[in-house]
Write a structure and sequence with these properties.
This protein has 5 helices and 18 strands. A hairpin with a 2-residue loop joins strand 2 and strand 3. Strands 4-3-2-1-6-7-8-9-5 form a 9-stranded antiparallel sheet. Strands 13-12-11-10-15-16-17-18-14 form a 9-stranded antiparallel sheet, covered by helices on one side. The longest helix has 25 residues, at 3-27. The protein folds into 2 domains: 30-159, no CATH class; 171-263, no CATH class. The protein is α+β, with helices and mostly antiparallel strands.
Length: 275
């Protein structure tokens, strides 16, 4: 190979490198750019879809966010905040989708999707250089921080409010497997018709129920029911729980949700310390 051939090969390599740099830079974007033009306050509906999982739909209401499909329940406020962060996530780069082979970036089919109002975002794989996630939105593929994928691609149990009672619930009666606690018209709590004596502080006991939050929530799994608990609210609602376990952790079930609420060391606080 003569010197001219070698020179031509070197020039060709340099040219290809320059073309690659131009193509890459054409996809780069201002660091201040966001994934969408939406603000958190603009979003009133969220839909999450994962392969082989039931889609979850959430809606903003006057009292806060609520799950509307596949069940109707209060949503976890902290999880909602994480979901809304995605809409304003920093976009590190943007590429025209029509110029890319979407299957190569795991965007056809996508690994999951989320919809804010009418704008859909589809998650793909992770690029190797900076470990950022590919997201398809409209006619562009963008790169965002990897953490947003794990913050938003969650299933129904993680989206449920861990509080077992509404935050503003006013209790009238708590029926436990071994006894019942009832509030009189005068606001005095009694146990099975007599003055409350087995619980040191009636107000603290009721407050424990009002503020009880599960450490985690999991789906039902052929659980054995050891008793039933009914909580009557002043607005006429009746909430029913199944007592699935008291040790080593307390587990209460909501049959209407097909979900189990796990509590760490709250058996005594909720009056359920039986073996």
């Amino acid at each position: 190979m003569n010197n001219r051939s070698i020179l031509n090969i070197v020039l060709l390599c340099v040219g290809l490198a320059l073309i690659a740099i131009v193509v890459f830079q054409s996809g780069e974007q201002d660091e201040a750019a966001s994934l969408t033009v939406l603000h958190s306050s603009d979003i009133n509906e969220i839909s999450i879809s994962l392969p082989y999982k039931e889609s979850v739909v959430l809606a903003r209401e006057a009292a806060g966010w609520k799950i509307t499909e596949p069940i109707e329940a209060r949503a976890n406020p902290l999880r909602i905040e994480m979901l809304l962060q995605l809409a304003v996530a920093r976009s590190h780069a943007r590429y025209p989708a029509q110029s890319l082979e979407l299957k190569r970036y795991q965007l056809a089919p996508p690994l999951g999707s989320i919809r804010f109002n009418q704008q859909s975002l589809f998650f793909g794989g992770v690029e190797a250089l900076n470990r950022r996630r590919y997201v398809l939105s409209g006619g562009s593929v963008q790169l965002i921080a990897e953490r947003y994928f794990y913050q938003t691609m969650v299933t129904l149990p993680a989206l449920l409010d861990p509080a077992i009672l509404p935050f503003d619930a006013e209790l009238n009666r708590i029926e436990l497997p071994s006894y019942s606690v009832t509030r009189s018209d005068e606001g005095v709590w009694t146990m099975d018709g007599s003055e409350l004596s087995l619980i040191d502080d009636a107000n603290a006991f009721v407050k424990n129920w009002q503020q009880a939050k599960a450490a985690r929530i999991t789906p039902y799994n052929d659980d054995v029911v050891n008793g039933f608990i009914k909580v009557s609210l002043s607005d006429g609602r009746l909430l029913e729980f199944e007592l699935l376990q008291t040790h080593p952790e307390l587990i209460l079930g909501r049959r209407d949700f097909a979900m189990r609420y796990h509590f760490d060391e709250q058996q005594g606080l909720l009056g359920l310390s039986g073996k």
